[in-house]
Amino acid sequence: MRMAEVSLKFDLTQDTLRYYERIGLIPPVNRNNNGIREYTEDNLRWVEFIKCMRNAGLPIEALIEYVNLFQQGDHTTQARKELLIEQREQLRLRIEEMTNTLARLDSKIENYGQGINRKEKELSRLTETEIG
Amino acid sequence: MRMAEVSLKFDLTQDTLRYYERIGLIPPVNRNNNGIREYTEDNLRWVEFIKCMRNAGLPIEALIEYVNLFQQGDHTTQARKELLIEQREQLRLRIEEMTNTLARLDSKIENYGQGINRKEKELSRLTETEIG
DNA sequence: CATTGACTTGGAGTTCACTCCAAGCGTTAA
DNA sequence: TTAACGCTTGGAGTGAACTCCAAGTCAATG
């Protein structure tokens, strides 16, 4: 599969695909006789995987390291596993924090729902009491 | 309270505090006779609130709009509520996506745990089957 | 009275993650 | 055979969100 199609398939610009490959965020894609990238199924899986992980906020640096380890072969599986465990923990923490913030927003919206508009109530929307 | 202390309290640089105020991400902070910012309790609540919302990924633009509405007074409560509801929905979606990715990481790590290292297994770590 | 330290301002600089550009090449269509 | 198309490359440009800087003010200290 060529860039144009991959670009459409994953909604990433061709420039972004080239950029990801250039910085090692996805492994190199083989070229045909004319030097044109031909994405294999494996390449496509990498693109999808990286897009998913980036969307979840995993740092580019960590993902580049993961790709590097992958390319070094089977003796890096332990290191890769540790990397994933670390990133999972970071992600878990981010989700936890965001879930707390979501609850705080719920509470704030709830307060607006009560039709309050007095000064002290207005201010209370900013206090931490509403998340406690 | 002065900048230095606020900066320590919330782990935001003084430059960032000034920047947030400059772009309207927090309402203006009153100055004393010498032109120096004196943060009130309300100011501190705003700083904390904005930091929390930014950490959760709410867009700066939306938060500036929220602060603007707040400063326009009580007749904007409905608009503020709608803004918060919209942002809550966006946040909910982000959390959902990230939770799916977390499950995918769990599954990937699980696979590494089985001590597999054959080619086809290696590749399977990239497939979507592991999240299904 | 000079220096130090904490602040002020406007504006320039930095980093990240793309995004765009110019020049060039190989295949297809007229 | 000329043109268009889709790709190639290295490198420059962009926007967001800070981050830093220079020049200046004011109050307190030696």
Automatic annotation (TrEMBL), chains A, B:
Keyword set, alphabetical order: Coiled coil, DNA-binding
Stretches assigned to the HTH merR-type domain: 1-69
InterPro entries: DNA-bd_dom_put_sf, MerR-type_HTH_dom, MerR_fam
Coiled-coil stretches noted in the UniProt entry, renumbered to this chain: 81-129
Protein name in the entry: MerR family transcriptional regulator
Organism of provenance: Paenibacillus glycanilyticus
